Amino acid sequence: MRRAKAVSLADGESLFQQGDTATRFYLVVKGHIKLFRLAPDGNEKIIELVDAGHTFAEALMFLEQPRFPVGAVALGETELISIDAADFSAILRDSVDLCMALLGDMSFRLRSLIREIDDLSLHSATCRVAAFILSRAPEHCDDFELDIPKHVIASRISVKPETFSRIIKSLKSKNILEIRGSKVRLLDREALEDAADVCGLPVEAT
Amino acid sequence: MRRAKAVSLADGESLFQQGDTATRFYLVVKGHIKLFRLAPDGNEKIIELVDAGHTFAEALMFLEQPRFPVGAVALGETELISIDAADFSAILRDSVDLCMALLGDMSFRLRSLIREIDDLSLHSATCRVAAFILSRAPEHCDDFELDIPKHVIASRISVKPETFSRIIKSLKSKNILEIRGSKVRLLDREALEDAADVCGLPVEAT
DNA sequence: TATATCAATTGACATGAGTCAAAGCGCTTT
DNA sequence: AAAGCGCTTTGACTCATGTCAATTGATATA
To answer: Is the CB of A162 under 7 A from strand C?
Structure first.
């Protein structure tokens, strides 16, 4: 692991851009990284928000001509460890177990992306908002914080900030939840779950 | 490879359903397999059309509790080889090269799915239709056939058949292409490419 | 040749979500 | 306390796509 390096980024600082050649991958130690795609008209869609403890871009090292399919910028102060792909690849060749672990990780991502495509093409914006909030809510606690700005959430779930705001408003008016700033309180978790899967795949199929 | 089995399916026959436990994966020998997700309201979104020569569902064997995240049915008469996941997993443990190959394959899929998400959230239906047609067109030939029914194409690109039909009509009216039945003729490839990426990622970034 | 069936097309209409523009609110800076 | 700045909210309006329903076309079955 000689060639692993620590990297620090300020809020909004870019790590790499879509199309850059990929020779390293990363582990988030602190903060968040947002991975996004840009449309020529300037619109951006967040593909993934990577939290501390997770790696990203390691899948690219297996492509012949590895280029980042997304751009990456820091959300808040963030710290990373950057790992040389060639180094890691050499290590991989010595460990079938590590290979299998990676394979497992990639399977998982594959499945997440399939779910997202499902979400985008089969569910309404309201469903996505509800599902997102649920995904951020702790198991047994109805009070929690959104640790990312709302316009970021909006882009993550492919909705405009204005629309996001209106959907939240309507959920409030139905007494399903309360939101003040970044503080969320779930008033009726069940109703929120309903809203989330008025199309949400039957549980067994996730 | 003892436990590999041949499977034949008639048109429309189901291979497995979303949520089924996955213990095998498949190689298409002849015909096509459509992988899809269903919404409770009956809507269906085709995640992938697998043509002869390609495998699918092999990524699942690395998950702890492997269930198919999609359903699979045959399009046209199709033949497959079904491979036992446990068998294959054993073989994998003996070959780092095979592991690497699989890893490469999965990276590729990951990237395709990211592109699709990009497509769904950043591009219009017209872009998707244009891109799809281009993706089916041979390199240096402007006459070719769509070997799948139009409503299947429509679902693949997340568009209703009616909308698909209208977009085609408008492309015809602009003298960009001709379509009669399943026969397509490109009249103005460049214009079609334009239509496809009036948002299509800059070439280098794919 | 008739007929049932399924795919594709067309028209009229409904609607969810985007756009644009203006406030409002919560920060930090001065 | 005032001013400035970005994020969020709200309102009015537009537009792309979906929905519903009817028609046409094409292929298979009797």
So the answer is: yes
CA separation for the pair A39, B203 (Å, rounded)? 12
- Quick one: B5-95 is in which CATH superfamily? Jelly Rolls (2.60.120.10)
Architecture of the domain whose range is A123-205: Orthogonal Bundle (1.10)
Domain boundaries of chain A, sorted by first residue: 5-113, 123-205
Q: For residue range B6-63, what is the model confidence (pLDDT) as tens digits? A: 999 999 999 999 999 999 999 999 999 999 999 988 899 999 999 999 999 999 999 9
SS3 category, B107? helix
Assessment of whether the complete model's pTM goes beyond 0.85: yes
The C-alpha of A179 sits at a distance from chain B's nearest C-alpha, in angstroms, of 27
CB-CB contact of B202 with A19 (8 Å):
yes
Selection from A60, A34, A29, A57 nearest residue A45 by Cα:
A34
Q: In this complex, do B121 and A122 lie within 8 Å of one another by their Cβ atoms?
A: no
Q: Which residues, other chains included, contact A145 with Cβ-Cβ below 8 Å and sequence gap of 6+? A: A182, A183, A184
The nucleotide whose C1' lies nearest the CA of A163 is C17
Taking CB atoms and an 8 Å cut-off, how many pairs form between chains A and B?
A: 149
CA distance readout (Å), A1 to A84, A92, A95, A115, A138: 8, 12, 14, 34, 35
pLDDT by 10s per residue, chain A, length 206: 568 999 999 999 999 999 999 999 999 999 999 999 999 888 999 999 999 999 999 999 999 999 999 999 999 999 999 999 999 999 999 999 999 999 999 999 999 999 999 999 999 999 999 999 999 999 899 999 998 999 999 999 999 999 999 999 999 999 999 999 999 999 999 999 999 986 444 433 43
B116 vs B129: CA distance, rounded Å: 13
How many CB atoms sit inside 10 A of residue A5's CB? 11
Angstrom distance (rounded) from CA A104 to CA A99:
9
Topology, domain A5-113: Jelly Rolls (2.60.120)
Residues near A4 by beta carbon (within 8 Å), at least 6 away in sequence: A81, A82, A83, A84, A87
Strand C contact nucleotides, protein CB < 7 Å = 7-12, 16-21, 26-27
